[in-house]
Here is the input.
Amino acid sequence: MSDASGPQVEPESVPEVDHEIADEGPEFDAALAERIAALDEDAAEKRAASLRAGLAEFDLDDEDLALLDAADEGPDGIVALPALPVLAIVGRPNVGKSALVNRILGRREAVVEDVPGVTRDRVAYRAEWLGRGFTLVDTGGWEPDARGIDAAVAAQSEVAIDLADAVLFVVDINVGATGTDERVVPLLRASKKPVIVVANKSDDAIRDPESASLWSLGLGEPWPVSAVHGRGVADLLDHVMTVLPEQSAVAKREFGGPRRVAILGRPNVGKSSLLNKAAGEERVVVNELAGTTRDPVDEQLELGGRVWTFVDTAGIRKRVHLQQGADFYASLRTAAALEKAEVAVVVLDVTEPISVQDIRIVDLVLESGRALVLAYNKWDQLDDERRRYLEREIEQDLGHVAWAPRVNISARTGRHLEKLVPALETALESWDTRIPTGKFNALLAELVAEHPHPVRSGKQPRILFGTQAGTRPPTFVLFTTGFLDPQYRRFIQRRLREIYGFEGTPIVVNMRVREKRQRR
Here is the structure.
């Protein structure tokens, strides 16, 4: 039995009880923090190497081995795996985009029907060709004058183009280039991404010459294929590999220059006022009318002795799929701005109760994996009675982000605005934090020795090995013999925060459940 998870008790000798470790106890263990801090790094790394060697007895896939090999190469035992390049498939409804996705994947993943508009959301799949992995993104049909839900589908396609490294533009060879296809071309050119025209539904060689008419789109050579029968798809993918980068430039951006800060919040909470006060001048329009800002506004400004890029975003009113018109597109652009940012400042109006929409915006930041700072605005208008209610609301509604730095400000007067920079720096430092593999495994061993995982159905899962797979946000991978309860994973997250801080950043703990190899 591996000692990666500390001393273990045999499952049959442990009563099956439900330890609510993550939610109810135990409190911060100062002695544990001292032991980890005083740990000899060389000894910890040697022990981690021994545990890593023990994984040879378990069934590991290629992705597991790539993760472990990358961790072995780093000077501190931590190297993030490169982000896979992203290939988006776009086109009008019913030109065969989802069928092409299934052909590339080699399995039926995307739903295909002989009616337009089956696919609505952007859906990402992991694909591989010639030994290279990439992310394949299927989209709904793009129509320029769509209304209602069709407009939402079209907007998702536009976002997919923006967040891709290369684009497959699928056209029906039986119909040729339509007016809709031609109206997509300027959007594709403006993206400055490699675009490959795919002439789909060319079911036999006799149809291939008809693809020549698609040269008129001005996007280069069209590639005749039949997604249903597989004709020409291999040649198409060979060509795709020549234009796709080895590592994505959009999925995991290597941030350089001034740190990027997105300002988010409901309409009229003071986002634009905050940007103007930080800049020391009227950079963006401020009005009592909610929803003044529609497009994200990038502004470089100096604050706290360093240059930042602040992005003022449109206020998010309600769920995106319930929005209409300009508000809908403003929300999509806000989400895209968040994807390009490194840290988000969520502005809350302390004169009003914390709303469901406030919580939803915070959760949007968590889902994006960005660092987080909470700015409680209009603090100068707060009276004692409202303050008591506010503290209770923060504890109840925002308890899941109690780790986020909090600043109480007044964007109108500039009160305590100087506290924003230290909060941003703290959050970004945590977002970039790496923990050596040896110390991380030593911590896991201590945790499991003191608080073993509960027995479930007569079995007690063990943690075999742990490594930090990446930063921005800190992401940890645990190789285990069984599924860890969500409460237990939260317990590990809380201990990581207590010992290493991670103030202002979400922490991701993933599992890879692996079984021992069968002896032959």
User: Anything to note?
Assistant: Residues 325-340 form the longest helix (16 residues). The mean pLDDT is 78. The domain at 259-431 is CATH 3.40.50.300 (Rossmann fold).
